[in-house]
Amino acid sequence: MPNHHRTSTPLPPRFAMPSPFTWGVALVFLALFIQGVMATNLTLERLLRGGVNLVHFIGRAFPPDLADLDVLAWSMFETLNIAIVGVTIGVVLSLPFALLAARNTSPTPWIRSITRLMIATMRTIPDLIWALIFVVAVGLGPIAGVLAIVMDTIGFAARFFSERIEEVHPGPSEALSATGAGRLSVIGGAILPETLASMTATSLYSVEKALRSAVTLGLVGAGGIGVELAAAMRLFNYDRALTIILVILIVVIGFEQLSSQIRKRVI
Amino acid sequence: MKAISVHNLHKHYGQLHVLRGLTLEITRGECVILLGANGCGKSTLMRCLNGLTSHDQGEITILGDSLTHLSKPQLRQLRRKVGVVFQQFNLVQNVSVFQNVLYGAKGQQRFGLLASLACLATHELRERAMASLERVGLAHKAHADCRQLSGGQQQRVAIARTLMQDAEIIIADEPIASLDPKAGKEIMDLLLDVVSERRLTVLCTLHQLELAQQYGDRIIGMKAGQIVLDTPRQQVALATMQQLYQGDVRVDQISPPTVDNAALPTS
């Protein structure tokens, strides 16, 4: 027989009343959203017109122009070069940054703070802005792209490396310290072996990420296939642009497949 | 010369006064078993003896050398003489059993970072590592991954690592607390065999009185950061042991010894 008062303690309510803070955040968010829709002039009419333009673009883009495929292949290859060189340098530099930034391997707290600040700066500034800065510094071309990727990779990989290093179980490191091993011995003997698999996975992910950003870096003149894409769009060669987009799609998807296969084996 | 000499040792963790004026002397070649309830400061004492934890006040002398006010290289030099066996074995995962034993020589190698990255150990070191593995009966597991080993086997590897270290003193902090009784006895047998072959000095914490009596030359009881019991193994009484783990006990209460061993389980 159902009994509605089986416990002497009252049951907790099914729905908790949101706190005043939650109400406040929700209201501010809603206000910003409505104001944003009005300010960006986001109307159904504009969206429809955009759709029509898109159909025009696609109509003019078909069939893709395969005339200069060898030239495009070479500039795609240059993009690949930028990504691989940039990521390799970036990952190699990430390791010392990560060791200096991790709580358990950093020599002093102030070195740790400075390193973390540097990594955060590299991460917070978007890759496109790094590319703009380096185009000013070293001129148009792939070197600016490589440098931008290096910065972006350190900001990303050093952070994940250092977080992984901090998660390492302290026992083995202590055991090595107890044998009289120095700091570098402990890092090489106990910390790197335990973090290597995860660092490899992070590095592979960095390559994927770098490949995607190397494509867009060309848009600001930092070399590679992005330069071709920007030119084709500006000259209304939509059929050529479509070919470029397809080439990018094939290479990026191919590389992501390859990298996820490697990752499966490593972890 | 005493192997270990501790005088008036104090250690605080924040507000917690863990070691309270502890004084202890251990002669060379002695096998001392340390008993005491959890939280009485046993592990802290063990860690202080290897310099893994620094003490606040008092004097520790290892084989005639003071552990106070040492530079880092001097401390590392001293640590090489004090091998530590941990409850959780503290082997480095992701490297082979053989490599873990080699790590015992880290304190003797220069350029430790490179040595561990590229496996640059000399032929002589590699031979010694294999000999240590043979001594603990695990030569056939040299290439195995540590995670494939049982707890008892992992502790054997840890003992091989201290053999590699060429330590003169072995500090074993509850070496069998994570093992089943059979594996625990095997490990204690192995440890004591190795110790008597090489005439090492041992300080080992245990929780089993019968094992303490079987293996120790001398039994020490600790309570609230002080030594409260210090007696040759024949003279320890069950009643005093019960007091050590529950009630109050003082050295003067058990001297002259009231032999109560009839109440003990004979093994």
From TrEMBL, chain A:
GO terms for molecular function: ABC-type phosphonate transporter activity. It is found in: Cell membrane. Residues 76-259 form the ABC transmembrane type-1 domain. It is a multi-pass membrane protein. Keywords: Cell membrane, Membrane, Transmembrane, Transmembrane helix, Transport. It comes from the Bacteria. Its main location: membrane. Pfam families: BPD_transp_1. GO terms for cellular component: plasma membrane. The chain crosses the membrane at residues 80-102, 128-151, 186-207, 214-235, 241-258. InterPro entries: MetI-like (IPR000515), MetI-like_sf (IPR035906), PhnE/PtxC (IPR005769). Belongs to the binding-protein-dependent transport system permease family. This is Phosphonate ABC transporter, permease protein PhnE. The lineage of its organism: Bacteria, Pseudomonadati, Pseudomonadota, Gammaproteobacteria, Oceanospirillales.
From TrEMBL, chain B:
Keywords: ATP-binding, Cell membrane, Membrane, Nucleotide-binding, Translocase, Transport. GO terms for molecular function: ABC-type phosphonate transporter activity; ATP binding; ATP hydrolysis activity. The keyword Translocase applies. The keyword Transmembrane does not apply. Residues 4-249 form the ABC transporter domain. PANTHER family: AMINO ACID IMPORT ATP-BINDING PROTEIN, PHOSPHONATES IMPORT ATP-BINDING PROTEIN PHNC. This is Phosphonate ABC transporter ATP-binding protein. The lineage of its organism: Bacteria, Pseudomonadati, Pseudomonadota, Gammaproteobacteria, Oceanospirillales. The gene is phnC.
